[in-house]
Amino acid sequence: MLSLWFLTWTTQGVSSSRTRWEYKAVDSTIKLSTREGEISELLNKEGADGWELVGYVPFRNLTFASEGYYIFKRPK
User: Fold this and answer.
1) 25-68 pLDDT, tens per residue?
2) DSSP run (H or E) holding 38
3) Coil, strand or helix: which one is 50?
4) How far apart (Å, rounded) are the C-alpha atoms in residues 27 and 25?
5) Contact 29/2 with Cβ under 8 angstroms?
6) Which long-range contacts (CB under 8 A, 24 or more apart) does 34-42 make?
7) For residue 7, how many other CB atoms are within 10 A of its CB?
8) Rounded Cα–Cα distance for residues 47 and 29 (Å)
């Protein structure tokens, strides 16, 4: 199960030439037996849309599935 959450932050600064970033957090539930293929598919899809993976926040639940948030960014 993949669910997408779009989050947007803007940088505030003195210079208007600073790069402004758009961020996206993808909540991903991946069963351990199919993990590699699903992760590759997700990363390739987001990369094709211009998103760069900048982090991953893992957590575990009691069903022994690997879950976490993939954090992506791209210029606005």
Assistant:
1) 988 776 555 566 778 888 899 999 999 999 988 877 666 566 78
2) helix 35-48
3) coil
4) 6
5) yes
6) 35/66, 42/2, 42/70
7) 10
8) 19
